[in-house]
Amino acid sequence: MNVDAILRQIGEFGPYQKVIYVILNLLGVTHGTRMLMAVFLLYTPRHRCAIPTYPNDTYEVQSDYHGHLIQHYIPNNTKDGEDSPYDQCRIFHTNGSDGGVVLAKTGCQNFVYDTSVFENTAVVEFDMVCDDALLASHSQMSQMAGFLFGVLFFGAIGDKWGRKVSLCLAVVIYVAAGLGLSWTPQAGYAVFVFIRFVNGASSAGAYTSVAVLSVEMVGPSKRLWVGTLIHWTFAIGGMVLDLIGYFIRDWALINIVGTAPAILALSFWWIIPESPRWLAKHGRMDEAEKVLRKIAKYNGKTFPENWREFHGTNSKDSSNGNANGGVVKSIDQSDDMSKANGGVVKSIDQSDDRGKHSDVIRSSKENGIGDVAKPVNQAQTSAGGTLRNFSKMFTYRVLLIRNIVLFLNWFAVAMAYYGLSFTAGQLSAGSVFINFLLSVSMDFPATGICLLLLDRWGRRRLHTVAMVMGGTSSLLGVLTTMVASDDLQWITVVVAMVGKLGSSMGFILVYIYSSELFPTTVRSAGMGASSAFARLGSILASYVQQWSLQMGGNLGKSLPLLVFGAFSLVAGLLTFVLPETLHKDLPDTVEDALVFGKDPEKDEHQDPVKVVEVYTVGDVQIEMTKLETANAHSNHTPVPDDLPSSLCANAK
């Protein structure tokens, strides 16, 4: 069954698909809320040691006598730029129950917290401060580890048992674990950490399933925008979280309200159809036909009764194509054939006498022209062959350097992206809510800039600019934090937001760039390894945040900007050693990767032609058209050509 050919007849992105797309992406919003909730959930308020002789002690001064006890028991904070007037982790040890002679400064086990920003956070619930401050980072590490596990686990379920099954299973777990997190203080810290792991896994599973289903429900010409706009839901989720946190200052209630909308997604089992591509691929033709007929009905289109014939080329139309002066090669563009040939399907109309005016060739029912497929040895794409080929990527010096640079970029961009979000409340000016809102809003211009310049500037140049811009801006924030007066600290916020814009662009670009640099035979393994380095970066970001809090003062506020900026700047500059992929045939084997990019001028003087490229992603085809040279074809889609559903979504 040629699902794309049928969708061209019944509507590639008609009213029915638009409704399904909106419904699915409401769940995508909750993913952004969950992944960024640590900003409020793990917010560390100002605190100090509890006075042992005052049972109802609070951070706020209750009376003159209470103020006298605070002055007697609590050392003053001497760090420059520190918000708290008190030493947050030490208390004077005296020789009397009501005071007396001060003997020494010691640590303490009981704390009181400032409630002016949040009435309660998980940090307060579990006293994750001072000597136990890293417990907060450990819990964040657990969620990020769960994210990586969830992408792989639920992706495998989606490939084997269906996208809808994977989605609904992830939603059930997401709702149960999400709501259950608010009651973990009664069960203890270990349970809190475990539930956060489940939160990350289920949220990643739901988001991946939403991304795959959204893309597989639409036709080739609409798939690029559909796949890109999905990522805006992450930023929208952050904005919704900011609004919830502003009006609700208790972490448990914030968590419940942020999770509750996902309860509606439990109805997806009865509302959302299974992917017709997945059904057709697994031989369930009757069910696939039923879904496609439903799409046709609500789109106001007539379902083609000869749909079973939509699987090959039309000799008559092919002859017409040749008569028009085009040099046309064709193969059967069925799903099985495209997958057998490595998933890369390309068509070129290279008319000798018309040059740049040659017609666009499409593999469709109405044009009847097949596509030129670039075959890949199937032995190289088996599980064992993939592992062997991936190991080769580290045995050649040029490929080893390329992999190190790519992995460093994934590590740096994820660390900066999440780190600048987590530390929004630690900037020297503005409230945590305003700074966080500005931070998550950077995703919108970042996506627009990438879509506008990606095929104009090229991958390498645009990614380098994004990373260098983000890194330099963050490093400038160190200078303004340390030197500028309080009245000028708004400059720190501005440069930090420019840094976040750079990391947001970098996250989009590194996914596209990496998927094009890894050869076809190891692309899945390469992207999986890249995603793992991204998780490591996001994990380290939470530890940098905690170290900065423990350090305190202006130096502590500068530490995150220094670390994130330095990594981004170095990773961006090292990108210059990578080859450009725009307007290039992408490597299929490790041997292709070895020579890829060594002759960048080889296609410069070729006459341009119009090229239609149809990329197969599992059961999905993405179709793009570009005017380019005869021997240079660019990959325009952020979804690489042979990834399973577990890696189809841009894994933020």
From TrEMBL:
A GO molecular function held by the record: transmembrane transporter activity
Keyword Transmembrane found: yes
InterPro entries: MFS_dom (IPR020846), MFS_sugar_transport-like (IPR005828), MFS_trans_sf (IPR036259)
Pfam families according to UniProt: Sugar_tr (PF00083)
One GO location term (cellular component): membrane
Domain Major facilitator superfamily (MFS) profile: 100-583
Membrane topology, record value: Multi-pass membrane protein
Chain positions covered by the region annotation Disordered: 309-361, 631-652
Domain of life the protein comes from: Eukaryota
Keyword Signal: no
Biased composition (Polar residues): 312-322
SUPFAM superfamilies named among the record's database cross-references: MFS general substrate transporter
Main location: membrane
Biased composition (Basic and acidic residues): 349-361
Keyword vocabulary terms for this entry: Membrane, Transmembrane, Transmembrane helix
Transmembrane segment boundaries: 20-43, 141-158, 165-183, 189-212, 224-247, 253-272, 399-420, 432-454, 466-484, 490-513, 525-544, 559-578
PROSITE patterns with a match to the protein in the record: MFS
Name of the molecule in the record: Major facilitator superfamily (MFS) profile domain-containing protein
Organism: Littorina saxatilis
